[in-house]
Amino acid sequence: xxxxxxxxxxxxxxxxxxxxxxxxxxxxxxxxxxxxxxxxxxxxxxxxxxxxxxxxxxxxxxxxxxxxxxxxxxxxxxxxxxxxxxxxxxxxxxxxxxxxxxxxxxxxxxxxxxxxxxxxxxxxxxxxxxxxxxxxxxxxxxxxxxxxxxxxxxxxxxxxxxxxxxxxxxxxxxxxxxxxxxxxxxxxxxxxxxxxxxxxxxxxxxxxxxxxxxxxxxxxxxxxxxxxxxxxxxxxxxxxxxxxxxxxxxxx
Length: 252
Hints:
Layout: E1 3-5, E2 11-12, E3 17-20, H1 23-32, E4 40-44, E5 49-58, E6 63-72, E7 80-86, H2 92-103, E8 107-112, H3 123-143, E9 151-152, E10 156-157, E11 170-174, H4 183-188, E12 195-200, H5 208-216, E13 220-222, H6 231-245
Parallel strand pairs: 1-4, 7-8, 7-12, 8-9, 8-10, 11-12, 11-13
Antiparallel strand pairs: 2-3, 3-6, 4-5, 5-6
Helix pairs in contact: 2-3, 2-6
């Protein structure tokens, strides 16, 4: 079933209706999908609540839908994962965002580390990139039927990450020089983990000083195995392992 997101204030439960007024969604529903009055769609309020709705009226400015059923989305994991991703070159960030949203990441924050090749010229350039990445996150969330739209945060310098460490139950940093700690071992020794941060380095990896600074501030260095993974692979692998051990990828 086709799925769409609306803002919470577009849902009028007391009147049993939902209004879709996004120009993009209006075009997609009426021109691309060619849906009409009487057709059913699925609508999410971006806050983990889903509605089965029936289109009752279509005009140029909005689509009115009748609420058939309300239910809690079943697609959000019990663990909150925030990915701190060093900005890679080319369009690799597009793939990173798309696939990590599919796996279940709640938020992605681009970080600037010493070996990042990409240099952001000014605030306007940064805002344009983040806006574009947010749109990719939105499309991925819609495709995989997420109950929320994961947020793409503003860019952060790597030395400033330690300011948010206290907000997490655990911070993990995959590092090629780490030989002893695997994620499974680290997770087994921790109970009640609900919020995890993952810090991923750029194409050239983190410097030794960067890793030492993060670890001394509370991050846990982990190995992803004997092979060196690309930056666009490392975050997805780390997230997948965590979602298996702590989330919902492993089933019940």
